[in-house]
Amino acid sequence: MIVSVLNNKGGTGKTTTAVNLATATAIEGKKTLIVDLDPQGNATTGLGFEKATLSSTVYNILSQSRKAAEVLLNTRIEKLSLLPSNLDLAGAEVELSSTPGREYVLREAISPIKDQFEQVVIDCPPNIGLLTLNALVSSDLVLIPVQCEFYPMEGLPTLLKVMDLVRSRLKAAFDYRIILTMYDRRTALSRRVMQQVNENFGERVLKSVIPRSVRMAEAPSKGLPGILYRPRNPASEQYRVLAKELLQVQPLVAA
Ligand code: ATP
Ligand code: MG
Fold first, then answer.
1. Is a pLDDT exceeding 60 seen at residue 255?
2. The pLDDT of residue 137
């Protein structure tokens, strides 16, 4: 299954979720690929790679100068591979705009390698541009991290409308799930956001809820996923639960 971690709002926990979910899935014994589709390259550094020293990146895949198999890196986590990115990827957005079939370049590029993996996780940038559209048409499932710190209802309906448009106009077929992140049970705001999201999105809200944790925020500075940096932390535990929960999800493809 190909899972894109997406929210056009910045800082909602997309990269933290993508990195920890992919790591937890690999630890479960499933061969996993994480695709860093954000020019910020946060998933790449979060897995301990130095962005400046990469010899090829997702940019080369999208500009069709390298095959995906040539860009694949093994990570220090057994069974977890990475397609890394750095700021070069910002150029792909501009270059793709004049490419025929510009929304389908990623899907075609990863199709020769995707069967090697049981789970593919794509970390999206915080906007809806061509990179994100490429992720959406490649996906079976869109995982939307919602931060429990502000009312999400302002942004979510727009995102869902865009997803509907992509399904119908770009002939894509994906379902979605919502994951609550940075939950702090001591605050009334966190509890209200949880209640509001559950009321509005019902069964599309995953049972795992990621608590706020300073250790999760610290982990990328060590080049390690939080679940390896502090395995017994409650947020790490929830990311392991999430990995198992997602392996059970059968995407209902909305018409
Ligand atoms: P962007 O939109 O810039 O790509 P993002 O949605 O990928 O951001 P992250 O980078 O994962 O979000 O997280 C934003 C910030 O919140 C980071 O500093 C991260 O370390 C921190 N963070 C993420 N999850 C948690 C958590 N559960 N507890 C505490 N801090 C967290
Ligand atoms: Mg990010």
1. no
2. 97
